[in-house]
Amino acid sequence: MAPIAVGDVVPDGTISFFDENDQLQSVSVHSLAAGKKVILFGVPGAFTPTCSMKHVPGFIEKAEELKSKGVDEIICFSVNDPFVMKAWGKTYPENKHVKFVADGSGEYTHLLGLELDLKDKGLGVRSRRFALLIDNLKVTVANVESGGEFTVSSADDILKAL
Prior knowledge:
This protein is of the alpha/beta class. Helix content is about 30%, strand content about 30%. GO terms for molecular function: thioredoxin peroxidase activity.
């Protein structure tokens, strides 16, 4: 499957997260993104070094600036279960705007065409590192990394595109 690209409509699929009342929610991506400007950024794994020390903190630190440029939602996405994503999100007490969501079985990652095979590292099939800017379900920016790189999918890269 070809990776999601600029001009594509994001596929619908189900993702899970714990809401502000600590209730597990499973919702469609379209219900989260329809009529909104959304950043969906994906990471290979929760609690992994580049994801935890660079990728996620950048979006948390730049969240107010991103929102001031019209972004409605900032979603951190990973092939992990929602309990892991909830625990990971709690390690960022300063976070007010980034929603941590789970693609437990990797089905949505497959729909995006952004799978990353890390079986040789004992991690199974994960998500490639990426950042998408989605405007009313249409991809306007698709910054997808190669392998384990972190060169085009930062919050600063999205800010430059806004």
